[in-house]
What we know:
The chain is mainly α. Helix content is about 60%, strand content about 5%. The strands form 4 sheets. A two-stranded antiparallel ribbon has the order 1-4. Strands 2-3 form a two-stranded antiparallel sheet. A two-stranded antiparallel ribbon has the order 5-6.
Amino acid sequence: MMNKAQTFVPLAVGAALFLIAAAWALPTWNFVISIGLAKGLAVLGLVLMMRAGLVSFGQGLYYAIGGYSVGLMVNLWKINEAILLLIAPVVIAAATAAVAALLLSRYRDIFFAMLTLALSMLLYGLLVKSVELGGTDGFNIRGVTLFGLPLSGPARFNGLAILILICFTAAITVWYFGKTSLGRLLPGIKDNEIRVEYLGASANKTIYVSYILAAVLAALGGAMSGILVAHVDPEMAFWATSGEFVVIAVLAGTGNIFTPFIAALALEFVRTFAYQHAPNSWQLVLGVIILSMILFLPTGLGGIRFGKRKTTTVEAGKKHEANHRSKEPRQAVRRGNCRKRRECRHHVWDDLGPDRHQRRRQNDVYQHDYRLSGPGLRFDPARRTGNRRAFAASDHPPRRCQVISDPAIVQLTDSN
Length: 416
């Protein structure tokens, strides 16, 4: 773990410094970089949920909560300090997610996705119908400062630097959460939730905590988007925004923490270039690029591996089994159209031992040997009558199955 920490933290620091240098060198692209990183925060929380096999179509709910919290505090209560504007969305989103997760943590698969989408659309309908919340036009956000330092408008670079710092902190937090006991349970819940429960862990608790963390990340992204873009509207809670987060998460994959930000930035840059060069068909260009990435990178950007890939335990076992089988004599020949079947490697397979029926008889003997009568086979009353007294090893001598030349005969003999 220490070696991974020594590798991950410097890499995260290098990525943050690179983004700051790119924002300083390309001031005209600060707006696009800001939107990409803000969406990357929301996608990072979504990727965290996807590690447990859950896809949330309601991340726009907390994205809008973050943006509208900032808009209401600036316009109604005249609070312009960035620290307060960032703390309030985190508290509100965490409280909302804590209540919603009580219900959502009990559901899986499509039911979880549809419930999150329903909650997001409830907020969208409330924002559109309410004139006090800006209606369909939303709010303009101006004059946000950090200790007197402006963060938006011509000084957007200052706000972008704060956003990069928040992204760095979020990446470190999610990485550390993945090393905790709860974080390690997420892939187990995706593979087999029943086994996780049998181990004594609570899958609902793990999903509950992960959902709250994902909500906080989305709220931070929405708050920073409202500050840097200087505007919020109900589209932040619309299903299209949540669907865009899902698309970015699919492109990013779940194998790396940096890929949500990379995928979000790449999508924003592609969208900008497509709109500039094909203003009437930029959606088509964007869709073709997304489908191509899904086709050629089914595991997302997180599935890309550089250098020699480590061999997993399953692959090592298969390789050992293949090597072991190759050394066995070839005794069976498959019927086929090849004239030289005995020389053709495609029609010859190794002798894998007893056939299917013989293996079935052996398994039946192993499972039901206590019911048989004969030398060395005794009926164990403890298995039928519930007698719990301990039997000596001599009462049940170990037995093994031997396969003789005739595959239809299975003989039971004592090992000693």
